[in-house]
Amino acid sequence: MVVVLDTTNRPRHPEKAHRPDQPLLPKPAWIRARAPVSRGHAQTHAIVRANGLHTVCEEAGCPNIGECWEKKHATFMILGDTCTRACAFCNVRTGLPGPLDAEEPGHVAEATAKLGLSHVVITSVDRDDLDDGGAEHFARTIRAIRARCPRTTIEVLTPDFLRKDGALETVVAARPDVFNHNLETVPSLYLTVRPGARYFHSIRLLQRVKEIDPAMFTKSGIMVGLGEERNEVLQLMDDLRSADVDFLTVGQYLQPTRKHHAVARYVTPDEFKAYEVTAYAKGFLKVSASPLTRSSHHAGEDFAELQRARAARTAR
User: Fold this and answer.
1) What is the SS3 assignment for 286?
2) Which of 45, 111, 129, 286 lies in disulfide reach of 51, CB 3.0 to 4.6 Å?
3) DSSP of 231-263, one letter per residue?
4) Is the pTM of the predicted complex or chain greater than 0.70?
């Protein structure tokens, strides 16, 4: 269990320190993750550290880190390790971030090459302190990877760029292969789960990507088990399809610490399967729904399936 306050270092979640402890539900049998003890994991860790990089795999406590790093699949987190938001579900450090590292795009490109990634996912913390929310840094990172690894396909998982005019356009102009922005949860829970964000702004962000570049794949993801109702999830699917989003991920929320939002319940594998079937019926090209589904889990394989699904639909 990750601590909220570390007296030997700066607080990880200072805004959560005085919140009452939330209950921890015991995990059901279907929540099982591979321990990070393989040689591949050690090699991935060494490459990430040698390039001075952060990964969302570590910072967010992803349960799939053992499986992914064994295969040398890491999701790089740019713009530093400190987020300006304080989402109730997230384990990434919060506070006032430091200055941007101008060398970071090059280091990400170098690590991508050393890991031999055919598909790379780039995400970030929220940087509300920056005039463009970090959009140009995203673009520089995309260009650096393209220069160093021209055959690697690139997926970005961006913040919402709320009140950052022109930021979205900067990232789309750099031509990532997949543009991902997660809704995270249903609109009724935004005030308690994602208070710094606005649901319909996020929907509009994804819609705007398609308006700028109709050929770009778009993607979004949510967590379940936060207290949402099934009909709210189905409405969210309709909202995403109205924005022409191609790919939906649905995973189980796992509570990082007692100070984070409590798990309301563990959604069963059968319910995840039902969400998957319904989402495909609503027109998504690709759906990944399971307890341990995460935005970048199996991203390379999913991208290949996404391409095949579009080709098959176009050929009809």
Assistant:
1) strand
2) 111
3) HHHHHHHHHHHHTT--EEEEEE----STTSPPP
4) yes
pLDDT, tens only, 4-46: 444 446 678 888 888 889 988 999 999 876 656 567 667 777 8
Closest CA to 73 of 35, 117, 37: 117
Q: Strand, helix or coil at 129? A: coil
Whose tokens are 């702004």? That residue is 201
Residue type, 121: V
Structure tokens that stand for 310 in this block: 């579009």
| Cβ-proximal residues to 208 (8 Å cutoff; 6+ apart), any chain | 168
Q: What six digits make up the tokens of 66?
A: 């053992």
In angstroms, the CA 34 to CA 222 distance is 22
The C-alpha angle 148, 73, 250, rounded to 5 degrees, equals 120
Of all residues in the chain, the percent with pLDDT exceeding 70 is: 89
The packing angle between helices 230-242 and 269-281, to 10°, is 30
- The torsion angle over the Cα atoms of residues 260, 264, 270 and 275, rounded to 10 degrees, is -70
Tell me what the mean pLDDT of segment 243-249 comes to: 98
Pairwise CA distance, residues 41 & 49, whole Å = 12
Q: Quick check: helix, strand or coil at residue 138?
A: helix
Q: Phi-psi region for residue 166, left (φ > 0), alpha (ψ -120 to 50) or beta?
A: left
